Amino acid sequence: MRRYELILQEGIQAGQFGGPIEPHGDHAMGFVAFSDAVEATADGVNIDIGTGAGLPGLVLADALPGTHWLLVDRRSGRIDLLRRAIKRLGLEHRVDAVAADVADLGRGEWRGEAGVVTARSFGPPGDTAEVAAPLLRPGGSLIVSEPPGEEDQDRWPEAGLRQCGLTHHERWTTNSGTYSRFLRTDDEIDDLPRKGARKTPLF
Fold it and tell me: Which of 21, 122, 128, 194 has its CA 20 to 30 A from that of 31?
C-alpha cells in the first residue's frame, strides 16, 4: 500500500468520500499525466482548491518529492484532519493546509503565486476559472478533472476563459478520468475574483 493510501483510508472511514482507495489515488495522479508535469509543478507553490480529504493535492505532494503545496478548503474540520495527515507523512516542510475561501486567497498574499492550481469537483467551470486564475502567475497551469462525456468547448468557452486570463492548452484521458489544462496569460484581471462571484459565474 502506498503511503498516502493509509491517509485516504482514514478519509473513507471519516465519511469524506466512498469507494475503494486505489481509484481515488489513481485519479489524483492523472492530474499530472502530461509531458511537462515535473517542470510545471517544481517551480514555486502549487495550490489545490477545494481539497477536501486531500484529493488530489496530498496525493500529488507525496508522489512528487520536492514540490510545494498549499491545500485549501473552506471546512476547518477537514483542514484539521489534513494537517495531521501532512505531519504523519512527514511533509510539513513543503505542504500546508488552510481553511479559507479560495476567492479571498486570490485577493490577498497568494495572488499570482502559483505555478499550478488543481481542482477536483470544485464547482461550475466559470466559478472554478474565476477564483483559480488570480492565484496563477503568468504561464501557470489550472488543471481540472472533467465529468465524462462533456466537450471542452461546451464547458469552457473561449470567450469566458479569456475573461479570466486563461487559454485552453490541452486535454488528456487516463484509465481513471479526463483532465483539462489551461494556461494563465499575461492579460490583466485586476477585477477578479468579483465579490459574490460564486453566486453568478462568468460562464
Answer: 194
pTM, entire model: 0.93
* Residue 138 domain boundaries: 3-188
158-169 burial, b for 16+ CB within 10 Å, e for fewer?
eebbebbbbeee
Query: What CATH number does residue 103 fall under?
Result: 3.40.50.150
Residue 203 resides in a domain: no
Biggest alpha carbon–alpha carbon distance for the chain: 46
Whether 201 maps to a domain, the answer reads: no
Number of H helices and number of E strands within the chain?
9, 7
User: pLDDT grade, residue 145 (50/70/90)?
Assistant: very high
pLDDT digits (tens, 9 = 90+) for 62-90: 999 999 999 999 999 889 989 999 999 99
The grid coordinates listed for 14 are 471519516
Is 109 part of a structural domain of the chain? yes
Looking at the 3D structure of the chain, how many domains does it have?
A: 1
